[in-house]
Amino acid sequence: IWKNNRGLNFRKLNSEWICQSSLFSCLFVHICTCVFLVILISLCIRLAAVGFLTVSSTVTMSAPFFLGKVIDTIYSTGTDIETMTASLTSLCIMLTGVFLCGGAANAARVYLMEVSGQQIIRNLRGSIFMSILRQEVAFFDKNRTGELINRLSADSAIVGRSITDNLSDGLRAVAQAVAGVSMMFYVSPSLASFVLLIVPPMAALAVIYGRYLRSISKRTQDALAQATQLAEERISNLRTVRAFGKELSEVNAYKQKADFVLSLAKKEAKMRAGFFGVTGLSGNLMILSVLYKGGLLMANHHMTVGELSSFLMYTFWVGISIAGLSSFYSELMKGFGAGARLWELLERKPEFPLDEGHVLPPEQLKGQLEFCNVSFAYPTRKEAHIFQNLNLLVPAGTIMAVVGPSGSGKSSLVSLLLRLYDPDSGLITIDGHDIRDLNPYWLRAHIGTVSQEPVLFSCSIRDNIAYGATDPDAVTTEDIYRAAKVANAFDFVQRFPKGFDTVVGEKGVLLSGRTLWWKSRFYSQISNPKILLLDEATSALDSENESLVQEALERLMEGRTVVIIAHRLSTIKNADTVAVLDQRQIAECGNPTELLSNREGQFRKLMEKQSHEKGKGAEFILEPYPQKE
Ligand SMILES: Nc1ncnc2c1ncn2[C@@H]1O[C@H](COP(=O)(O)OP(=O)(O)OP(=O)(O)O)[C@@H](O)[C@H]1O
C-alpha cells in the first residue's frame, strides 16, 4: 500500500482495515514465535543429548584411571589396615558419586536420542510421502505401489535408525576410542604405540567390509521391495486370486522372492560374521600383547601395577569402542545402501509441478474444450501411439459422447483433459487457454469426473462424499444430503443402520459392490464442476440402478459441458454430438441421428454391433433412438 498509493490519506482508512491488519501482524508474529520456539526446542534437545554424551563418556573413560589409583593406593598403603580403609572409603565414595552422574547422563542421552531419532524418522516419512504424492501419474505407471510402500516404511526406518540411535552410539564409541587411546598414551606411550600397531590393518579391513555391506544392503532393500510389491498386488486383488484358485502358486511366488532376500541376508551374515570374528580376535590379541609387554615394563620398574591395570582397562574400553564403531559403521553403510533409492525419491522433481508457475484464467469459466492436432503415446509405451493429430471441439454447455472400439483411447482423452499426462504435440484448451498454463488444482476443481473404477477410501460415507470438495472441512451435513439427493442415493444410504456415518471397508467392499462405488463417487461431485467427464459411467449398473443414475445424470448435466465416454445407447441418448474414435483420430463427429442414418458410417456399425450382441436387429437402433428436443 505504501509503495502503490503514495497519495493515500491515512485518515480515510477505516477501522475495520486497521483491525484486520493488526490482527494479521499479530498472527504473523505468533506464527514466527512458534516456529522459532520449535526450532529452539529441537536444537536444545540435540545440544542436551550431546552434552549428556560428553558427560557420560568422560565419566566412563575416567573410571580406569581412578580405578588404577585405587589399586596403587592398596599397594602403597602397605599393611596399615586403618589408613587403607580410610583412603579406600573416601576414594570409593567419591567414585560412586561420579559413576552415578555418569549413569544418569547416559540414561538421559539414550532417551533424548531415541526421541529425536523417532522425530527424524517421522519427518523423513512425511517428506517421502509428500514427494511420492507430488509425482506425475506416469511415475506410478513405472513404479509400483508395493515398492513405494516398502520405501516409505522399511527403507525409511533403516535410514532413520542408522542416522539416529546408531549415530548416537557411534559418536559415543568415537569419543570413547579417542579418549581411551589418549589415556593409553598418557599412561604409557611406549606400550600404547606397540599395541596400536593393530589399528591400520583393521581400518583397511573395515573399509572393504563397508563397501560390500553398502552394496548388499541396496540389493536387499530392492529385493524386499519386489516381495512387498507382489504381496500388495495379490492381497489387494484377493478376489481374483481366489476365483482362479491361485493361492498356493502365489504363496510359492512370494516364497521365491523371500528366498532371494534370505540368500542376500545370508551373504551379509557371512561377511558380518567374518568381520566381527576378526575384530574380536584382534581385541583379544591386543589384551594379550598388553599383558606381555606391560609385564615386562613392570618387571623393569617402568610401570606400576596400578598403571598396568589402568592401561588394561583402557585397552578393554578401546576394544569395546572399536567393536561399537564397527557395528556403527555397518549400520551406517546399510543406511546408505537403503537410503540410495530414498534420496532419489526425495530429490525427484515431478515432470508437472502441482501448482508452481501456473495462472488462474481471468474470466468466468464457460467450459469450451478443444483438442488441436494432439498426438500422444503413454510414457511407458512410447512406440504405441494412442492419438495422432487428433482434433475435437466440444462447445461450452453441450454434451459430447465419445464412442469407439475398445482400446481406441476414449479413457486416454479423459486423462489428457485432467492433465494426468501431457500430449507429445498439439494443444488442449479450455476456453482457449492451454491447459498446461492453467493451475492444475484449479483445473481439476472445475472438472468433475466419474471414472470406470471409482474408489472409496476406508472412512465414513460422509467423509467420502466430502472428499470431492475443495475444502472438506467446510462441507455441511446439508451439502452432503443435497449431493446424495441429486445423485438419487439419499434413501439408499439412509437405509444403512448408521446412515452417512457408515464406515466403508477397503475399496468400498463392505457396501453392495460396484453400484455403490459409482454412486458414492458421484456424490463427490459436491464441488459443482462446470465440466463433467463421465467415463463408462453406468457400465457396471443393473437396470434399476441404471435408470436412477441416468435420471440423476440428466439433472446434473444441465448447464455444463459434458463428455460422456460410453458404449451404450442409453447412456449417450442425451448427447448433442457424437464423436467416433478410431485409428488414433476422430473418424466421425456429428449429430447422433444423422450419423446413425449413414449406413456405412462407423457409428452406425458400432451401434449395430452392439444391438446384435443384445440379440436385436439393426432396426432397433433407428426406431427407438430418442430424439433430443
Ligand atoms: N497407463 C497406461 N500406460 C500404458 N498404456 C496404457 C495406459 N492406459 C491405457 N493404455 C493403453 O492405451 C490404449 C488406449 O486405452 P484406453 O483405456 O484409453 O482405451 P478405451 O478406448 O477407453 O478402452 P476401453 O473401452 O476398453 O476402456 C490401450 O491400448 C491401453 O492398453
From TrEMBL:
Pfam families: ABC_membrane (PF00664), ABC_tran (PF00005). PROSITE patterns: ABC_TM1F, ABC_TRANSPORTER_2. Residues 369-608 form the ABC transporter domain. Signal peptide: none annotated. The keyword S-adenosyl-L-methionine does not apply. Keywords: ATP-binding, Membrane, Mitochondrion, Mitochondrion inner membrane, Nucleotide-binding, Transit peptide, Transmembrane, Transmembrane helix. Its main location: membrane. It is found in: Membrane. It is a multi-pass membrane protein. Residues 47-334 form the ABC transmembrane type-1 domain. It comes from the Eukaryota. CDD domains: ABC_6TM_ABCB10_like. The keyword Membrane applies. SMART domains: AAA. This is ATP-binding cassette, sub-family B (MDR/TAP), member 10. The lineage of its organism: Eukaryota, Metazoa, Chordata, Craniata, Vertebrata.
